[in-house]
Amino acid sequence: MAAATNSILLKLKPKIKIKICNPLFGYPRSNSSASPSIPHLFSTTTLPYADADSDCSSEIKATADANPNFIHPSTDVHPNAIIGHGVSVGPFCTIGSSVKLGNGCRLYPGSHVFGNTEIGDHCLLMPGAVVGDHLPGRTVLGCNNVIGHHAVIGVKCQDLKYKPGDECFLHIGDNNEIREHTSIHRSSKSSDKTVIGDNNLIMGSCHIAHDCNIGNNNIFANNTLLAGHVVVEDYTHTAGAIVVHQFCHIGSFSFVGGGSVVSQDVPKYTMVVGERAELRGLNLEGLRRNGFTATEEEDKELGKITAVCTMIQSLRDSFAQNRRGICKFRYFSGS
Length: 335
Hints:
Acetyltransf_C_sf, alpha/beta, lipid metabolism, transferase, about 25% strand, Trimer_LpxA-like_sf, 10-stranded parallel beta sheet, 2 domains, lipid a biosynthesis
């Protein structure tokens, strides 16, 4: 298959004789000397799919200084797109007219960036990933993000109240890993935006709907599904196949057990589980992993501990107007 694809690409440029050093297809292959007019056909060793032991490595290094970017000839790049330094783009990708790619970004084969989209430095788009959409508004990704295979980021929301033509927004921070088949939608109205912070791990097949606000250092296991307007604070952990009702709040350092349906707020530092999620006590293991000490857990003067004060405030906030209250409590026996 790889050999056939290479043959097709050569037929597209019959008047140009080149030396193909193309780890994109898994192996180097030689024809004749390269034409100096098409240095973009050479990759650099910074490519994610580069072969460091290739017999073309010296030639790659020789051309890297003159033209550090690699844009595969089959890629559709709009002339108005802004592409940073050291960017590598594999075959059959699309880069739209209002796209801005930061330095060192890597687009694997078949990934696409559309609409008014800005991607920060050193982001990685795996094969089939789609970022942005042809909509009013904007999609912004920070630096060092990984967008997994066939993930769809920054497209139109599924809220039927969305009015075509309204601006909609998605802002994603730095150092997030968004795994395969995950979908993250833009906001449902111009006055709001979907936000994801920094250092989050969002595993495969998760869904984050319109107008959600996700903090930092969270872990969402596979098939975590968040409805619209959900707020997730920091250092939360969800197990697999959980559903969160729209407008719910999930407090910092909390844990949601596998298969749970969360229809009310989850207070800070707590653990919930169940088909209708119920409180099962403190998230002790999560607290210990994040540096909370046994002294803080057992101190009798609880009112002086910042963590306890913020937990109490979180409980009070959950009963404010337009909030859904907290999950009911059930004693957890451990069985």
